[in-house]
Amino acid sequence: MFGRRKDVVYKVLSTKKRAVALHKLSAELETPAPALLKTVRELESEGLVEVFYGVDKASIMVRAKTLEDYFSSEV
Protein backbone atom coordinates (compact mmCIF):
# COMPACT_ATOMS: atom_id res chain seq x y z
CA MET A 1 0.00 0.00 0.00
CA PHE A 2 2.70 2.50 0.93
CA GLY A 3 4.55 1.92 -2.33
CA ARG A 4 1.45 2.95 -4.24
CA ARG A 5 1.20 6.17 -2.25
CA LYS A 6 4.78 7.06 -3.17
CA ASP A 7 4.02 6.31 -6.82
CA VAL A 8 0.94 8.53 -6.79
CA VAL A 9 2.76 11.43 -5.13
CA TYR A 10 5.66 11.20 -7.58
CA LYS A 11 3.35 11.00 -10.62
CA VAL A 12 1.41 14.06 -9.50
CA LEU A 13 4.62 16.02 -8.92
CA SER A 14 6.20 14.96 -12.20
CA THR A 15 3.16 16.01 -14.23
CA LYS A 16 3.24 19.49 -12.71
CA LYS A 17 6.83 20.10 -13.92
CA ARG A 18 7.35 22.84 -11.32
CA ALA A 19 7.63 23.28 -7.59
CA VAL A 20 4.46 22.94 -5.53
CA ALA A 21 3.81 24.02 -1.96
CA LEU A 22 3.39 21.05 0.37
CA HIS A 23 0.11 22.35 1.80
CA LYS A 24 -1.40 22.74 -1.71
CA LEU A 25 -0.27 19.24 -2.66
CA SER A 26 -1.75 17.97 0.60
CA ALA A 27 -5.11 19.55 -0.23
CA GLU A 28 -5.04 18.24 -3.80
CA LEU A 29 -4.30 14.67 -2.71
CA GLU A 30 -6.61 14.93 0.33
CA THR A 31 -3.79 13.66 2.55
CA PRO A 32 -2.70 15.09 5.91
CA ALA A 33 0.45 17.21 5.53
CA PRO A 34 2.52 15.24 8.10
CA ALA A 35 1.87 11.94 6.29
CA LEU A 36 2.60 13.56 2.93
CA LEU A 37 5.83 15.08 4.25
CA LYS A 38 6.96 11.63 5.39
CA THR A 39 6.28 10.24 1.91
CA VAL A 40 8.05 13.18 0.26
CA ARG A 41 11.09 12.71 2.52
CA GLU A 42 11.30 9.06 1.46
CA LEU A 43 11.11 10.08 -2.19
CA GLU A 44 13.83 12.65 -1.51
CA SER A 45 16.09 10.00 0.02
CA GLU A 46 15.61 7.95 -3.16
CA GLY A 47 16.65 10.98 -5.24
CA LEU A 48 13.30 11.40 -6.98
CA VAL A 49 12.19 14.76 -5.57
CA GLU A 50 13.77 17.96 -4.34
CA VAL A 51 12.51 19.59 -1.15
CA PHE A 52 13.32 23.22 -0.41
CA TYR A 53 11.88 26.16 1.46
CA GLY A 54 9.95 28.83 -0.43
CA VAL A 55 10.27 32.54 0.12
CA ASP A 56 6.60 33.26 0.73
CA LYS A 57 5.43 32.48 4.26
CA ALA A 58 8.31 30.02 4.74
CA SER A 59 6.44 27.28 2.89
CA ILE A 60 7.91 23.89 2.09
CA MET A 61 8.19 23.41 -1.66
CA VAL A 62 8.49 20.09 -3.50
CA ARG A 63 9.60 19.44 -7.07
CA ALA A 64 10.00 16.15 -8.91
CA LYS A 65 13.42 15.58 -10.42
CA THR A 66 13.37 14.76 -14.11
CA LEU A 67 15.73 13.05 -16.50
CA GLU A 68 16.98 16.48 -17.59
CA ASP A 69 18.06 17.15 -13.98
CA TYR A 70 20.10 13.95 -13.91
CA PHE A 71 21.72 14.52 -17.29
CA SER A 72 22.61 18.15 -16.55
CA SER A 73 24.23 17.18 -13.22
CA GLU A 74 26.53 14.66 -14.94
CA VAL A 75 28.20 17.27 -17.14
Could you walk me through the main structural features you see in this protein, from its secondary elements to its overall organization?
- This protein is of the alpha+beta class.
- The longest helix has 15 residues, at 2-16.
- It has helices spanning 2-16, 22-29, 33-45, 67-74; strands at 20-21, 49-53, 60-64.
- It has 4 helices and 3 strands, in the order H-E-H-H-E-E-H.
- The protein is globular.
Give start-end ranges of low-pLDDT stretches: none
Shape from CA axes?
globular
| Most strands sheet | 3 strands, antiparallel
Instruction: Give the count of helical stretches.
Output: 4
List keywords for this structure.
75 residues; alpha+beta; 3 strands; 16% strand; globular
Could you write a compact summary of the structure shown?
Helix 1 crosses helix 3 (33-45). 59% of the residues lie in helices and 16% in strands. The mean pLDDT is 84.
In terms of topology, how is this protein built?
Blueprint: H1 2-16, E1 20-21, H2 22-29, H3 33-45, E2 49-53, E3 60-64, H4 67-74
Antiparallel strand pairs: 1-3, 2-3
Helix pairs in contact: 1-3
